[in-house]
Design brief:
mainly beta, single chain, six-stranded mixed β-sheet, 2 helices
């Protein structure tokens, strides 16, 4: 009878325990804008995992990474999260070529609705000087003079766009062009 009680009480704990695995994953050399529950944010891009953030990992723009991580099943949560990731080891870090171009969606608004708190900014693009903006408090975007008017209108109209970028250095990218707007944009 004691064995049955122990099994009866321990079985739910075994069912609810978190599954942990160890994986080797790759991380692209740029982040992407994700529409989160109530706001937008920049997250990691991993083609072979669901990793959007990795505890203990210091991402640097412009490098492909191969990482050994611990993947712990925690969800599904309401935001779609299934796993937590923590860094075990950086296996490789390779800088991209100077000619590498990538696409990134730029959205000037962080929150989906108006924020009444005076200390909170709803804007993701903060002007640093005449031709450089800080995006999501994470990466500087250098804008060529020919595109400054276009960017100003996008910010003023609070409309997003798809841009193509090249790396300048570790914390700066340069706008190279735009995706052609669709007919209904």
């Amino acid at each position: 009878m004691k064995k049955i009680c122990v099994i009866f009480f321990c079985f739910p704990i075994l069912l609810l325990s978190q599954k942990v695995s160890y994986k080797t994953i790759t991380i692209k050399p740029y982040m992407y804008t994700q529409n989160y529950e109530h706001f937008k944010r920049l997250v990691l891009d991993s083609p072979d995992s669901e990793a959007e953030y990795i505890d203990g990992f210091d991402f640097e723009w412009g490098y492909y990474y191969t990482l050994k991580v611990k993947e712990k099943k925690v969800g599904p949560f309401s935001d779609g999260t299934h796993y937590d990731y923590s860094l075990l080891k950086v296996i490789s870090k390779e800088q991209v070529a100077d000619t590498f171009v990538f696409g990134m969606y730029i959205d000037p608004l962080r929150y989906y609705s108006k924020i009444e708190d005076e200390g909170v900014s709803n804007y993701t693009l903060n002007k640093l000087n005449d031709s450089v903006y800080l995006y999501m408090d994470n990466i500087e975007i250098e804008i060529p003079e020919i595109s400054l008017e276009f960017i100003s209108k996008k910010i003023e109209n609070k409309s997003a766009f798809m841009g193509y970028f090249q790396f300048v250095n570790g914390n700066r990218i340069r706008l190279k062009g735009f995706r052609a707007p669709l007919k209904n944009e």
